Amino acid sequence: MAIVAGVDFGTLSVRVSIVDSQRGRLGTAVEEYPLHRKREDPDFATQAHADHMRALAAATRKAVASAGISGEQVEAIALDTTGSSVVPVDAHMQPLNEYYLWCDHRAHEEAQQITALAHAENLEAIEWCGGVYSHEWGFAKLLHWLRHNPDKRDQFASAFEHCDMVAATLCGITDPRQAKRSVCAMGHKWMWNPRWGGLPPQEFLSKLDPLFDGVRDKLAGEYQTSDHLAGDLAPHWASELGLRPGIPVPVGAFDAHWDALGAGCREGDVVNVVGTSTCIIAMARETDLIPGVCGIVPGSVHPRFTGIEAGLSATGDIFEAVARRAGVKVSTLAQGLENYRAGQTGLLRLSWDNGDRTVLVNPELGGVTLGWNLIHTAQDELFAAIEGTAFHTRIILERMGEHGVRVDRVINAGGIPQNNPVLNQVYANVLGKPVLVPAGVPTSLGSGIFAMLAAGAYATVEEAQAALCLEFTIYTPDPAGAAIYERLFPLYRKAYFALGTRSAPPAALGVILPDLRKIASEVSAS
Length: 526
Prior knowledge:
Blueprint lengths: L2 E7 L3 E8 L3 E9 L3 E3 L2 E7 L1 H19 L6 E8 L4 E4 L9 E2 L7 H13 L3 H4 L10 H11 L9 E4 H9 L10 E2 H7 L12 H7 L6 H4 L4 E2 L4 E4 L2 H7 L6 E3 L2 E2 H8 L6 E6 L3 E7 L11 E3 L7 E7 L3 H11 L3 H4 L14 E3 L17 E3 L7 H25 L6 E5 L7 H11 L3 E4 L6 H11 L5 H8 L3 E4 L3 H22 L11 H14 L1
Parallel strand pairs: 1-6, 6-14, 10-11, 15-21, 21-22
Antiparallel strand pairs: 1-2, 2-3, 4-5, 5-8, 7-9, 12-13, 15-16, 16-18, 17-18, 19-20, 22-23
Helix pairs in contact: 2-4, 10-15, 11-13, 13-14, 13-17, 14-17, 15-16, 17-18
């Protein structure tokens, strides 16, 4: 029997769960931290490492108290974070700036340059991240920082993903060369893979920009899956968190990847971690290259499988934006959506409000809503936005299926599906598959699973999942709704590829608006 702490750093808060190997979750606590944006620069999004660590300490103490235990009883602590959230550091592991958060999109020019040079140089790594390097990923963000902070370049010793920085901090590591790096983080966002000996060659990086001279050595170190340890909890942070010093801290990972395991993901599952954005996670023993899918990395989700990551750059953020423009809360605007039927609004909404993460990987796109008339409401747009995120998810799952990824089950994890049965039913109808929703919040259970492995309570991920994962609520496709979406999806697909790519061939889009009106009229008449 063991008690551990599982930590999940989200976009706006950190959640800490105290988990018992036999009784499951004993207590949980959430602590918020600020997200820094600039009205004059919508691509800007940063957070401070110090804010994260203060919130972690406060949430851990509250979680321990809510569990009714002593901090001395906690035998391991594991953490996941957002990604790619990148912080440059000096030779003593001190941050030189705030994190470029995952949703910071300032590095789009750098990402385009990386993509272009990678194809010109026939760099194999670019094919394994979908053929396009994203503005959301590590090398692009680091290059943007180096270009825009000339006064700090001489202090730059390394850069870290959020999960690796927090783990190193908890373990008292002050030398960047001694910090362990997550295969999950570096594989999905920094083009690391054992196939080509780790990171891209220095020659490629230097050709990209001389500011990258020597950067490969600065990012060197021990790269590990999360069944290995980052170190042991240092006395200072044990005191701050109210835990026992010396307990193991496994190598961290990204929140969506561990959330998928915490939601019960197994081979053949696709997990939609639906929150402010959507991360789509699958794992397979073997898989082919998948164009437009942003990461295929051995050991990134489950240590013995290849992890596959895709997603939407905004989901909950879109719903919030629709409600904000209407001057109400999402919860208020959503009242009555359960009475909406597939296709009734006559609207078709493309979920590009924050760009396209998969499969176009294009930050230059913007949200598009087709079919407006003079009596449409904000609530109509909200329902169309839910349908649009489901259609986009289907685009991604079909692309994955075309390249050999099994999709036996769809699991909707993350915070939004817990409180949005309308969304879950729409997804089941659009995807044409049962959608399973954990009967409770699985966030931080993935961290609990790896903490249990570190504490020796279980020998395998599967054993820990069997003990800790929640039961499912199941949404099955409604035949009438699914039939309407089978007619709407080809219209969405046509608009998606025609409007989303500069080089798209001419497409006959004139059918879309009349068909939307026709379908809406039929639904209304029925």
